[in-house]
Amino acid sequence: MISNAVKMLFLFTLGVSSVSLAVYLPPKTIPANELQKTIRVMAYNVENLFDTTHDQGKNDYEFLPKNHPEKIKYCQTKPDPKTCLSEDWTQSRFSQKLVQIRNVFAAIPGGFPQIMGLIEIENEKVVKQLASVLGFKGQVTANGPDERGIDVALMYNESAILKFVNANAIRLDPSKLGKPTRDILEVNFKVLTSSGWKDLAIYMNHWPSQNNPVQSRIVAAQILAPIVKSKIATGAHIIVMGDFNTTNKDSPNPLQILSQTAGIYDLDTLFRKNAPQAGINLGLVPAGTYFYPESNSPPETSWNLLDRFFVSPSLLSRSAVVVDWSSYRIFSHPGVTTSYTYKSGPYAGRIVKGVPFRYNHFTDIPAQAGFSDHFAILVDLKLL
User: What pLDDT score was predicted for residue 319?
Assistant: First the structure.
């Protein structure tokens, strides 16, 4: 649990740079009598969490100190070596980023996550350091072939109701993608219910970016879907989560292929469909987890729901483990947001409040550092 002192640090660090948020639905508070049978799950793209050392064979030169020999050699190959060398990723800046991530966690009311999925981390070393800062005792990291060294990871805290079993990486065939990409990480747990221990499998994803053709994300969906379907057939409960880098512009849509083939359900869609009759104000829910403005597109279409949860049918039935769909949140706390002003085009001068406060890796001022270009997502599992 994060201390009140850290929470005060969070508020102080933001200072006057924080912007009042137009949309914010706080996470549900877990009643004390339900804490022992609730598991909170979170996924967060922490935006380029790199250490300050060079990983052999990886293009991580941007995130090295300016006096690092490998950085100097790399920058000499660039058109503007001086600008390249000005990007000074130091140990103190790395430590500051860990604190900023901790500050996001400090702002989560109503219960700390027991399972935490990470996107855009460099390696096991940085995951272990972040886990130590956040108070996670267990962690597992994929070690995929991504050219920059970007991977996914999962941190967790075992308890009387949650036990780690094993983990394995799912490799996406580079020959079908055009270039190597991140592995999908499968992590298996046992959860204790009133009818005994049940299997819970988490699949962490970070699919090829929008700079890649839609076919690359279709390949990811086609590889993952039969694996998930087979796992469901064993009786396991399933959560497929992470940054799928898929928008409504993708056609055919890789997420539809994934959900229909594997027989799983998009939690955001379920939430928005059922929220009104449950008395939840959808006006307080962000349109997406990522805001990418284009000068000729209105703010409404600049939001993308890149980060998602998909769940197996068993988690939506009155089985031993149930996902509380009403607990689903896009964590758009006011402290982790900022505003964006359109600078050109037909929307020039228009201000959009409540967008993710993306990270500035090359500042030493916490109030200017930001947090991530993505919002985190959360949901609660109830053990019956």
Answer: 81
- Pull the structure tokens for residue 253: 């849509």
Are the CB atoms for 184 and 143 separated by under 8 Å?
Answer: no
Identify residue 351 by its one-letter amino acid code.
I
User: Of all residues in the chain, what percent are helix, strand and coil, respectively (each to 5)?
Assistant: 30, 30, 40
Q: 382, exposed or middle or buried, with CB in 10 Å at 0-12, 13-18, 19+?
A: middle
According to DSSP, the residues that pair with 154 across neighbouring strands are 117, 140
Q: How far is Cα of residue 227 from the mean position of the Cα atoms in its chain?
A: 22
Instruction: Label the pairing between strands 138-141 and 38-49.
Output: unpaired
pLDDT band at 17 (very low <50, low <70, confident <90, very high): very low
Q: Do the bridges between strand 290-291 and strand 265-266 make them parallel or antiparallel, or are there none, so unpaired? A: unpaired
Strand pairing category for 307-311 and 237-243: antiparallel
Q: How far apart are CA 357 and CA 365, in angstroms?
A: 14
**Per-residue pLDDT averaged across 349-364, rounded?**
95
List the alpha helices (DSSP H) in the chain: 4-14, 69-75, 81-86, 91-106, 124-134, 174-177, 214-233, 254-262, 267-274, 366-369
Q: Name the average pLDDT for the chain.
A: 92
Amino acid type, 40? R
Q: Is the pLDDT of residue 306 over 60?
A: yes
Per-residue confidence (pLDDT) for residue 75, from 0 to 100:
96
pLDDT for 106 equals 93
The position carrying tokens 């599992």 is 381
